[in-house]
Amino acid sequence: MINKEKIHPLLQGPVQSRDGIRGIERPRGLLDALQEDNEHLRSLAGMHIVSARQFDRNQILQLSRLAASYETQPDLIHPPLRGKILVSAFYEPSTRTRLSFESAWHRLGGDIMSITDPATTGIAKGESLADVGEMFNNYGDVVVLRDNSEDSVYSMLDSLRIPIINAGNGIDEHPTQALADIYAILKWYPSFGREDLPEDKKVIIGVIGTPNRMRTVRSLLLLLSLFSNSIKKVYIVNPSTDLFDAEQQEELEGAGLKIEVIHKLRDVLPEIDVVYINSIAWVGDSYETLTGDIKLTSESNLKPNSIILHPLARGEELDPSLDKTEHNWYFSQARGAVFIRMALLTCLVHRINLVVDSPVDQPEEQ
Questions:
Q1: Contacts of 175 (CB under 8 A, 6+ apart)
Q2: Rounded-to-integer distance, Cα 344 and Cα 313, Å
Q3: Cross-strand bridge partners of residue 277
Q4: For residues 80 and 362, is the Cβ–Cβ distance under 8 A?
Q5: In Å, how far from its chain's centre is CA 334?
Q6: Cβ of 194: how many Cβ atoms within 10 Å?
């Protein structure tokens, strides 16, 4: 007779509901807080997305609103990307970003061609990226590219007649990760999108990372600069002193961010409302990790009601003991990345009218 007492406890009941993830209940509040203005979404049609610098504040707010709409109504009656093909080209290791884009595209009704190893392509034979881009024009409607070189995505631009999305180019940028980060903050605190936020309602953000070596941090800071009216201060927490490229800090401060560099996390942690932590910077085929007292656990002196964001994958810097606390918004952040990418992809391929307008009133765009 089978001894059922030996069955693992998690196998004796239904799969855990997604409602246990922090932030799942928040998209509705964001929808209520933001007024719909779809002209800002239509302006994205046909664009390449290579840098966080390409977005303005209104585009980000409307993308976040559309993402919240997708997140609250995940079962689409009319998938807007039916008949469209995504070329998913990941020439550098990725789990979350690749699967997030592919999940987003599938949820929108499209089909995918995936490349995960450049050794299986003409690049291994010496084919130029410009020629690869020319071929992509014939095979898909959007290209998502990740490569360990900062120049790869730019090398394809001249030959591409379909949009390309930068999914991480070396230590340069990761613009759609930054969109996911802002979306998470807006769900947690919808008033973050207001331009007239009173001083006592503004947030303090702590970015634990290296702005000139971590593409996630570089892109996030660029997008945060668009919301400087809602931010009291940004702490850059890092034990090192070589943190910014030439003029990088000046650009951010010129856009209104008040930046202060701190070398010890414990000195400022109790003040911070949003803790953004990343310890890995990809450099070529390898990576560097942040060192020092950079570690968060459930015993850390975190501000009540503060949230932690992390682009993942995590290492020792983010202890699993935080997973079941109120501070864990990194799982919701990863989940939300699917919906913000759904919003962006819908706009890029000229299908926004199928989502925001009645299909009866608006013919399907080709």
A1: 49, 50, 51, 52, 54, 55, 165, 166, 219
A2: 23
A3: 208
A4: no
A5: 8
A6: 17
Two structure tokens written together for 74? 């995940």
Tokens at residue 203, please? Answer: 């947030």
What phi-psi label fits residue 55: left (phi over 0), alpha (psi between -120 and 50 degrees) or beta? beta
Helix-strand-coil split of the chain, %, nearest 5: 40, 15, 45
Strand locations in 26-139 (E)? 85-90, 111-115
State pLDDT tens for residues 113-122: 988 776 666 6
Top-level class of domain 26-173+337-355? alpha beta
Beta bridge partners of 276: 207, 309
What are the residue ranges spanned by the domains of the chain? 26-173+337-355, 175-334
Residue 282 and residue 215 in contact, taking contact as beta carbons nearer than 8 Å: yes
Q: Are 162 and 349 in contact (CB under 8 A)?
A: no
Amino acid at 36: E
The pLDDT tens digits for 330-359 are 999 999 999 999 999 999 999 898 887 644
Half-sphere exposure of 225 (CA within 13 A, CB side): 21
Residue 107 near residue 133, CB atoms below 8 Å: no
- The topology under which CATH files domain 175-334 is Rossmann fold (3.40.50)
Q: What is the Cα 252 distance to its own chain's centre?
A: 19
Quick: pLDDT tens for 284-293: 555 455 555 6
Q: Regarding beta strands 274-277 and 231-237, do their DSSP bridges make them parallel or antiparallel, or are they unpaired?
A: unpaired
Running DSSP on this structure, what letter comes out for residue 268? T
19 compared with 99, residue with greater pLDDT: 99
Nearest to 27 by CA among 60, 77, 65: 65
Does this chain's domain 26-173+337-355 share its CATH topology with 175-334? yes
